[in-house]
Amino acid sequence: MEGKHSDIKINYSKMKVFEDFNAEKPLFPLVLSIPHSGTYFPPEFVKEVASSVEVMRHNEDLLVDELLQKAVSFGIPTIKMLISRVFIDLNRDRLELDPAMFYNYPKDKDILFDKHCRVGLGVVHRINYLRQPLYKGLLDYHEVEKRLKNVYDVYHAQLQKIIAKCVKKFGFCLVLDCHSMPSKICSIIDDRSGIDICLGNLFSQSCPQEMSDFLAGQFWNKNYNVEFNCPYSGAFITFNYCQPKRKIYTLQLEINRALYADEERLTENADFDAAANDVSEAIINLAQSLVR
């Protein structure tokens, strides 16, 4: 890739970044954020990358938006990203960029070269799930700045608005950041039967313990194997939006994909409806518990 330039020019004028639901007049102080289930790839982007759409889709949180549909229909405020996380990853800091990906990265620009960048999964992904390079050449930093402005900032601005409405009405808000995790990771970490559900609360720092305990109990009651902070304790959204002094709390929900999907074919499996019902029921009960 060194020496080659990847000339990507995106038309943002008609691009829909997110969908939100139940956001104008929230019925619950619970906000569902679904940042990684987007399946839209800008056509200009697809033409310039080295991976197929099918391969790039393996980086997404497969079908999580569909999995939570019952909870959304119940009236819980929700925002979901429509664009693929390969294009821009909302659960990363804006500064999580690898300078080596660009032919014109500003010399005076701050760098947050953390673990995500090192493995190629910063705010702009460098690799696909096969660990192959995504791009045919070095990127234009100014083009990525436009991605951040027109997609990343747009989603986060709307999420902040929904949270503010909940705080204004209820005096507090819990953001449940909803994700899925590859079954292979779950099985490697827990060789007994694998982890079904992971709740990341920044090691009991992101929300009152009774909130995360309540949600864990909903899954335990249905015989799911629940772990706290393993394999994920929470990423950018969980950390960045956690403001206990303002009574804004966060919790990251990770669901083992094998519970509901065929991970290779990117489709629902025979257990999808049962898993969707269990997950949504747990979230609905959490929402109701917050207004009692």
Give an account of the 3D structure.
It is a single chain. The termini are far apart. 33% of the residues lie in helices and 14% in strands. α8 links the parallel β5 and β6. The protein has a single domain (18-289), classed as Zn-dependent exopeptidases (Aminopeptidase). It is α/β, with parallel strands linked by helices and 292 residues long. α8 (209-220) packs antiparallel against α10 (272-289). Strands 1-3-2-4-7-5-6 form a seven-stranded mixed beta sheet, sandwiched between helices. The protein is built from ten helices and nine strands.
Provide a concise account of the structure shown.
With about 290 residues, the chain is an alpha/beta fold. It has one domain: Aminopeptidase, CATH 3.40.630. About 35% of the residues lie in helices and about 15% in strands.
Keywords summarizing the entry:
292 residues, alpha/beta, Aminopeptidase, 7-stranded mixed β-sheet, two-stranded antiparallel sheet
Report Rg: 19 Å
Question: Strand tally, please?
Answer: 9
CATH class equals Alpha Beta
Assign the CATH superfamily: Zn-dependent exopeptidases
Quickly count the helices.
10
Tell me roughly what share of residues is in helical segments. 25-40%
CATH architecture: 3-Layer(aba) Sandwich
Strand order of the largest sheet: 1-3-2-4-7-5-6
Largest sheet: 7 strands, mixed
Write the H/E string, N to C.
EEHHHHEHHEHEHEHEEEH
Structural class: alpha/beta
Q: What is the count of distinct domains?
A: 1
Uncertain runs are: none
Q: Strand percentage, roughly?
A: 5-15%
Give the integer mean of the pLDDT values.
Answer: 94
Cα separation of the termini: 57 Å
Q: Which term fits the overall shape?
A: globular
- CATH topology term: Aminopeptidase
